[in-house]
Amino acid sequence: MNFYFPLETLSRDLSWLRFNGRVLQEAQSHTVPLLERLKFMAIFSSNLDEFFKVRVATLRRLTKLKKKTRAKLGESPKRQLREVLAEVKTQQQAFGVTFREQLLPELNAQHIHLVNEGELTPAQREWTAQYFRDNVRDLLSPVALDDTLHHLFLKDQAVYLAFFLSQPRSPKGKAEAERVLVMELPTKRHGGRFVRLPDEGEERYVLFLDDVIRVGAAELFPAYQQVAVSAIKLSRDAELDIEEEVSGDLMEKIRSSLAKRATGFPARLLYDPEMPPETLRAIKQKTGITDEALVEGSRYHNFRDFFGFPHFEEAHFHFPPRPALPHPTLPRTGSLLAAIATRDHLLHPPYQSFDYVTRLLREAAADPRVSAISITLYRVASKSAVVKALLKAAKHGKQVTVVVELKARFDEESNLFWADKLKRAGANVIFTTPELKVHSKLLLIARREADETTRQYAYFSTGNFNESTSEVYTDHGLFTADERLTREASSVFDYLRDQQTTPELEHLMVAPFGLRPGLNALVDYEIKQARKGKEAYIILKMNAVEDRGMIAKLYEASQAGVRVELIVRGIGCLVPGQPGFSENISQRGLVDRFLEHSRVYVFAHGGEEKVYVSSADWMTRNLDRRVEVAFPIFNEELRAEVRHLLDLQRHDNVKARDFENNFILPTEGEKPLRAQEATYAWLKGLKRRRGRA
User: Fold this and answer.
1) Is the peptide bond preceding residue 321 cis, with omega within 30 degrees of 0?
2) Where are the alpha helices (DSSP H) in 157-228?
3) Bridge partner residues of 568 (DSSP)
4) Which one, of 40, 32, 37, lies nearest residue 674 by Cα?
5) 439, 507, 644, 651: the active-site residue
């Protein structure tokens, strides 16, 4: 039977902005500790910066294509850009209101005052002026925008202060009537964006570094009576323009493109709306920035610097401590390889410690019976314990194969650094072809056992081999020696080595060759079950659902009577609950203390429920242009564990939002359930429950 329905979708960019709106909701929520709300403001700001550098820059590039070429896109980039910028403006206004009318008054009520230079008492102003002389003045190097300067280059994502000087004190002719100078805010050299003033009793005072400079501006330019100081920040296009490259040396392309990124065309210039028009005019003239890149901001830019807001000790300002839990079946000391040999184990960072992964690598590096280690690296920590263990393994003579992804956006430079170190240590470093990104998270260890046979041990994960992000990203990882999985993981690494032979797979679903067909087959099975009048359901937890083909398949399933539940943290282009084609689909998203990052696919499958955990979102790039792995959970106990954690999110009524960003609240008589808190509590009691069993 053929179904006809309109493929109604929400644009990817507007959907992403909805996600960032949920982040802003956390900054606005009184259920979030006060200083944590400042961090959510920082996350919102950092997210929006990346959005402009990547998505808005891409839309602007598309608008410059020839009309015939634009027509092939099927959508109008100009219209999309207008809609996106309108939504951004609305969110920016809400951001400003949140900061000025909510957070600042609440900080004041807690005896923390983020003051500007106009609010300083005479004593505070004197202290600030002296601080400027002692700690800041020598860090400043303003550049005059006059006839001697042909072009002003502004660094990407740096805050600049622009000075408009007027009313010279000296007689006419000895000083220009008006001058404009620009200077990078020396945040890094100063050691942060904020200055803590001396306390006055129980009152604590904090000042932006910007305002310290405003206090000292008169001393900096003594020849002028009036000095107006305004802030600007430029975001440059961060796309590397290599998605369609199919030849040449990728590493050199990446190195070249990283250099170009800093000089990419301007995607957005944020400016203080109080900036004198003379200042803005001079900046536009010297930079060549056009009006389309101008975005009215506020007095302060780079709110991501609030990650470095001064620390105050009161416990109620912060989330309660949630130390990583010990694992219920993995040993705290002793051999992890021996434990994995006996059974499968699931790891759930950040609730449980990622240290089990680094311990496994260190053990493998030191074990004389381990002959080979293969791993995919997408994003690693700046001081990576994972890479250090691999370096140790290579120096101990192990055959170390490392697939390094060079196109992990904003981590390319770090990945190149570690790739060079690994190659020098003797590791076999593999760079994939430019058109294929490796996003899967795989670790495979080969060990010669006591009976002289070789056994393989694997770790499959939804999250990166990155101990830093493992503290804030929620993920699932599977330790296993099950030959059904390790044998196929080995086939995936064989494919990555030669990138020619498609692996033969029965249990793993691997993009770009088998994941989409495998998912379609699983959805089709649910459709057939529903048409027979049998129970049919699909539960999907992901960061993004964007691929039009998979959305169409879910709409088809809905029409057939399949119940579809989506838990989507970020981009959700599918429109749920629409009569005629998506009335059987529901969608919710969860934003809380930790960043939801795991992907789980559940299919009823005629009463023999199938549970897959994956690195892949349902985006076209993930299904068709990346190496992604979805792995089944065979162990019944562990499958129930994944389902229980998923069910907690399905029933969250504290931090869950619906498709329209409305909070899903408890119904009458229903107890509040906050999934992340409930997850921690459940995992904390897991060892005790299994011990009794």
Assistant:
1) no
2) 187-190, 209-220
3) 542
4) 32
5) 439
439 is catalytic: yes
Which tokens belong to 39?
A: 């961090």
Is 581 within 8 Å of 554 (Cβ atoms)?
Answer: no
State yes or no: 473 annotated in a binding site. yes
- 409 labelled binding-site residue: yes
**Radius of gyration, CA atoms only, the chain:** 28
Q: Are 206 and 196 in contact (CB under 8 A)?
A: yes
- Looking from the CA of 285 toward its CB, the CA atoms found within 13 Å total 13
At 369, is the pLDDT very low, low, confident or very high (cuts 50, 70, 90)? very high
pLDDT of residue 357: 98
CA-wise closest residue to 545 among 1, 9, 7 = 9
pLDDT in tens, 529-568: 999 999 999 999 999 999 999 999 999 999 999 999 999 9
Going from the C-alpha of 170 to that of each of 92, 165, 179, the distances in angstroms are 42, 13, 14
DSSP string, 228-292: EEEEEEEEE----S-TT--SS-HHHHHHHHHHHHTTPPEEEEEE-TTS-HHHHHHHHHHH---GG
* Distance (Å) of CA 196 to CA 76, 158, 199, 303, 315: 49, 22, 8, 17, 20
Note the pTM of the prediction, 2 decimals.
Answer: 0.89
477 vs 68, which has greater pLDDT? 477
Select from 17, 48, 77, 14 the least CA-distant residue to 295: 48
- Number of residues written out for the chain: 693
Residue recorded with tokens 């302060």: 300
Domains of the chain: 10-110 (1.20.58.310), 117-312 (3.30.1840.10), 336-498 (3.30.870.10), 509-686 (3.30.870.10)
Residue 597: Cβ-neighbour burial (10 angstroms; 0-12, 13-18, 19+): buried
Ligand-binding site membership of 569 (annotated): yes
- Would the pLDDT of 54 be above 60? yes
Tell me whether strands 203-208 and 194-200 are parallel, antiparallel or unpaired. antiparallel
Task: Report the alpha-carbon distance of residue 81 to residue 87 in Å, rounded.
Answer: 10
Q: Consult the annotation and say whether 61 binds a ligand.
A: no
447 annotated as a binding-site residue:
no
Helix (H, G, I), strand (E, B) or coil at 337: helix
> Cβ contacts of residue 672 below 8 Å, gap of 6+?
653, 654, 666
> 520-526 — which CB contacts under 8 Å span 24+ positions?
520/550, 520/553, 522/601, 522/603, 522/605, 522/610, 523/553, 523/554, 523/556, 523/557, 523/562, 523/603, 525/603, 525/605, 525/606, 526/557, 526/560, 526/562, 526/603, 526/604, 526/605
End-to-end CA distance of the chain: 49
Partnered with residue 208 across adjacent β-strands are 194
Residue 496 to residues 136, 489, 500, 563, Cα–Cα distance (Å)? 52, 11, 8, 37
* 150 annotated as a binding-site residue: no
d(CA 383, CA 480) in angstroms, rounded, equals 27
* Distance of alpha carbon 210 from alpha carbon 298, whole angstroms: 13
Asked whether the beta carbons of 219 and 126 are under 8 A apart, the reply is no
* 3 has pLDDT over 60: no
pLDDT at 404: 87
Q: Which residue, 154, 134, 129, 48, is CA-closest to 91? A: 48
Tell me whether residue 324 is exposed, middle or buried, using C-beta atoms within 10 angstroms of its C-beta: 0 to 12, 13 to 18, 19 or more: middle
Angle ∠(212,217,223) on CA atoms, nearest 5: 165
pLDDT in tens, 189-209: 999 999 999 999 999 999 999
Of residues 693 and 312, more confidently modeled: 312
Asked if pLDDT for residue 133 goes beyond 90, the answer is yes
How many angstroms separate the CA atoms of 350 and 594, rounded? 8
